[in-house]
From TrEMBL:
<dbReference type="InterPro" id="IPR001509">
    <property type="entry name" value="Epimerase_deHydtase"/>
</dbReference>
<dbReference type="Pfam" id="PF01370">
    <property type="entry name" value="Epimerase"/>
</dbReference>
<dbReference type="InterPro" id="IPR050177">
    <property type="entry name" value="Lipid_A_modif_metabolic_enz"/>
</dbReference>
<feature type="domain" description="NAD-dependent epimerase/dehydratase">
    <location>
        <begin position="6"/>
        <end position="226"/>
    </location>
</feature>
<protein>
    <submittedName>
        <fullName>NAD(P)-dependent oxidoreductase</fullName>
    </submittedName>
</protein>
Length: 301
């Protein structure tokens, strides 16, 4: 029996790289779609079941790549994330999150590829609203969902969008709050932070990857009730940043010198995560926060 075939975008990112490794471990043939110039460091080497394709920005070239890959499903994780943007960032945000994403859907339609696991963000729901983007990045995610409706209605795509909360895990190189805490713990340095009352909702990387697998299975098994579905990928156990830091200190065995209130909250800080999401059927996180923090802290930097 031939291996299932996937085309995956965003493999140079932390979550995308982890999903790549999981698909390979599960026996998939994986085709990675990378921008010209994107690093492939940290990815497994190309081989019989792993193929790298470089996209030059052209829609017709992307159609050729899609035709060559002939995937059963597309996992779309590529995006440009900016918590805040400057005027000079607008073009990059639109190109990465709207133009490229629409080219991807166009290529799927042209090649008869129907199953898409798309990636959104809980930041599309500031103050728990049906739609209120925290930032322009979040707005581009919602804008692509609106564009996807055309491909669903006209070309028969079937889509599950996973709206991620914060993800973390061993080997995470991203400049996020846990890496700040890890540096303080290892170096004994001090850190000025906001007052720390915002709730943090962290999902361990293995659980986040399983959500993508579960979403694909929902598409493949025909369990989807609607052609476009979206689900929140949440730990279900948000806690204040201050408590997260205290737990990290306990897990690491290192005191953390944090000056709470040493810097203000950023504009449109998410104080309470989105709570009115629909849970992905058949999925729930299995790695508790203390275990996940220990795995994160003990991993090589």
């Amino acid at each position: 029996m031939s291996a299932r075939r996937a085309l995956l975008t965003g493999a140079s990112g932390f979550v995308g790289a982890a999903l790549t490794r999981r698909l390979l471990a599960d026996g998939w043939e994986v085709h990675l779609l990378l921008r010209e110039g994107s690093s492939s460091a940290g990815l497994p080497p190309e081989g019989e079941r792993l193929h790298l394709h470089r996209h030059n920005g052209d829609t017709l070239q992307l159609i050729d790549i899609m035709r060559a890959a002939a995937p059963e499903a597309v996992f779309h994780l590529a995006s440009l994330f900016l918590a805040t943007h400057k005027p000079e960032d607008v073009t990059r945000l639109i190109q990465s999150n709207l133009l490229f994403s629409t080219q991807l859907a166009e290529a799927m339609a042209a090649c008869g590829v129907r199953h898409l696991v798309n990636t959104g963000t809980s930041w599309e729901h500031y103050e728990d609203e049906a739609y209120n983007p925290v930032c322009l990045y979040a707005a581009t995610k919602q804008a692509f969902s609106a564009l996807l409706r055309y491909y669903v209605e006209v070309h028969g795509l079937r889509v599950v969008t996973l709206k991620l909360f914060d993800t973390y895990g061993a080997g995470d190189p991203r400049p996020k709050v846990l890496n700040l805490l890890k540096r303080v713990a290892l170096e004994g340095s001090s850190l000025g932070m906001s007052p720390g009352e915002q709730l943090m909702d962290l999902v361990y990387i293995d659980d986040a990857v399983q959500a993508f697998i579960t979403a694909y299975e929902r598409l493949a098994d025909g369990r989807q009730q609607n052609a476009m579905e979206e689900y929140g990928v949440s730990s279900g156990n948000a806690l204040p940043l201050r408590e997260l830091a205290a737990l990290y200190a306990q897990v690491s065995g290192k005191p953390l010198a944090i000056a709470w209130g040493g810097r203000p909250y950023r504009e449109r800080e998410v104080m309470v995560p989105w709570s009115t999401y629909q849970a992905l059927p058949g999925w729930q996180p299995t790695t508790d926060l203390a275990t996940g923090l220990a795995l994160f802290h003990n991993a090589a930097s």
